[in-house]
Amino acid sequence: MASEQERFDDAVGSRWNWSELIARDEFGARLVKGTVNRRWRDTFLLLGMCCLLVGCQFSFDPMVQDRWEFPDGYPSQWTSPNAEVVPVTHGIALIPREEPAVLLSGPLSLDLRRYRRVRLSVFTESPSEGRLGLVVEATGGTERISLPFKTHGGRLETLDLDLSALPSGVLKEAILIPSLIPQRVGVRSVRFAAALLVPWLDELLSPKPGVNLALRGYSINFVDAPSIHGRSLWQWLFPVVLGLAIAVLGFQGMTRWQAMIRASAMQGLVIIWGLGVCFLVYHQAVALSVDVKRFGGLNQGAAYWRMDGGPLWREMRAVSSFATPDDSIDLVLHVNGGMDSFLRFRAAYYLAPVPVLHESATLRLHYFADVHASCATVEPRLVLLEESKQVCLFRVRAT
Amino acid sequence: MTLLMDFLGLASLWGFGLLITPLFSSFHPTTRLGMAYGIGAVWITLVLGIMGLVGLPISTPVVFLVVFALAILVWVVRLRVGMPGQPFLESTERGTWNGVATRLAGLGVVGALGLLVATIIAALTLFRTWIRPITGWDVFAVYSIKAKTIYVTETIPMVLLGAGNSPDYPLGPPLQQVWAALVAGSWNETAIKLAFWGYFPSMCLVAYGTLRGQFGPSVALVGALFVGALPLMIQHSQEPYINLPLAYFVLGQSVALTHYVRGGSRHGLLAAALFGAGAVLTRPEGPFFVIINVILLTYMKVPAKDRLVYLGPAAAVWGVWAVVRPQLMYETAVITGLPEIVSGADRVWPVATALGQALFMSGNWIIVWTLFVVAFLIRFRSTFDVENIFFSWPVVIYLFFLAWLFVRNEWMFQFLADNTLLHRWILHVAPLAALWVAFFICAGLSERLAFRAVREKS
């Protein structure tokens, strides 16, 4: 009667050591035993892979990669009444929308010496004229430049505007007005192209994914890939990687040509992976430089101010000093709609351990991003505890 | 001085783990060094959690008194039991620091390049961790708000889980943040972030040690870099999100269980049990991986007693949390999830394509998933071998489970379009998949290097 340990050993089967097998040249032999003698399975596998490849390529909408979110602590300062503010993101592309004007919000910081043209992809229903407005911080001061263009209407059009005549400086803001007459318009993308010889290389080498790593909240959810023509580099390379992987793992025979294919494929994989690592390091380095510019040398309060776009931390710290351990706060924010949720959670974090509740709170706090009316008129029936430039704090009920 | 205190939180977690890791002497020293961090984190979490539950104040003097008393106790037990000392410096055949220079010189071009890139990546992540305040939405909205509440009130308050989102999340990560703040002496975000950055090098060390057991140092280094150089993981190493810690505990469990089933060593079983508890303490998905591993152990016909040893700590932690959790929540707090499951056959294709794009075409994983899928299909039969089963099957089962959840769960499907959840959840198994693929890469590289050596000789 075999013991439990012996039965376990039997089930575990032959133990083998990778390095030993490689040394004895059995590594490939073992793989061959389990794989290439089943030709039908390989065929099925290849067909399956091809289906997957085709499915993924054709179902892929390039716009899926583009995400829109207000950057942390960077509310736009643009005051144009008709401008719809959308943030700039990877490749400076925009979602299709129908507003008459589109503002590319900050933090734009494009060195115009690096860019020679801007390519717009816009749709208008009928022929029209449009305009791209740029705010450039040049050595002689801030300059506002307008680049006009014409559209034929009825289709999505790609327009190239020359930037070479512009003054050297840093592009801080841009506003796109696709049509000067009221009509339905769509904006697909706005791309600033660098002065590189190969047209797609500027996009591939764009530092934008690195900038996004530092500035965009979504970069914790997914990392922007380097792209070519609006598509991820890895999407372009997927068929190649797939082929190489099949060659490395599938051709395990011991003949000379099989070994050669395997070795070359392995070399190819290592090169592609090395390329990916280079991009990773490049983007992280860009992100670090942005972080240093943004937070370098700042104390905690100043860093929070920069992130929140205001003195939220300072105000919440002051407010929490009024709260007793039994208090809870009902928080009312009077800020830009896009920032509301972000600042609400930031405020709750700063206020902790005082809990933020929607109902049954003992205190009510109004936080204003801009100038506000007298606190007495905000909640006339409640007892005012504290009034400052941005805060009105009331007691709703006693603890 | 402040920076030193910030690093002390990180170092102390490692230090407490190092006290116990001599128990696992059959592992490669580098693996033990990597595992020490997770074990230290589990230990501190349990100590702070138990202190909170029994009503002891979670204040600096009391916590330090308890923790150091326990550390001394462990040290005394260690001396009495006779566990080997100096575990990381003496137990390799060439393991002296004097030999480091010799070993570095022997790395060759491939190894030197790998070391250079690894150093650059580590430095970049460390500097970014250090210079930025907490910016991750979930961190300040979910984890750090709980940690700050515990830190300031010096207790686990009854309304804690109403603070922020995700009330059902375990308290492991917040308690580790509390520990970092206690060591730093104030609510210091740099210290908190550094404590979570520690999971990243630890995972790379575990990967290196695991590969080093089979391959030469330069090849193992490249393999470890393959595991460590995942763009999304690098980004996560700089924010105290809890996806990377879970990935670390998942990888650690697989490494330890493989070590156990290959050699029958109880060290592996014990380490896997601690890492299982760590996974349960980190995220609600933690028990899922423990269950998968129990099923795989059953398939491997591991004795029931050993399965219980593995399951015990994780089950105990989960049981206590299941009892305590409802008492800590607001009445209005609702755990979303399984009750929202609905039929969704029309969602299969959108989920499949989104998953395909996320795995093969996003900027998160370079080429890991293409290689993993090809390796899994081509080497399907050997995925049931002891060397592969704990590296490959948890990944595959988890991905299918993930796809199923996205198809069937209304709440999760809504987040498919904006990529909020999918990639982060893939991160839980990405390093494990990368480590399995790294075995093939390392084998291929070894083969090439061996051929080259033979050619040069001839």
Describe the structure.
The complex is a heterodimer of chains A (about 400) and B (about 450). Chain A is of the alpha+beta class and about 400 residues long. Chain A has three domains: about 110 residues, Galactose-binding lectin (Jelly Rolls, Sandwich); about 100 residues; about 90 residues. Chain A has twelve helices and 15 strands. In chain A, strands 1, 2, 3, 5, 6 and 8 form a six-stranded mixed sheet that branches. A four-stranded mixed sheet of chain A has the order 12-13-15-14. In chain A, a hairpin with a 3-residue loop joins β14 and β15. The radius of gyration of chain A is 29 Å and the shape is extended. The termini of chain A are far apart. Chain B is mainly alpha-helical and about 450 residues long. Chain B has one domain. In chain B, α7 crosses α8. About 5% of the residues of chain B have low confidence.
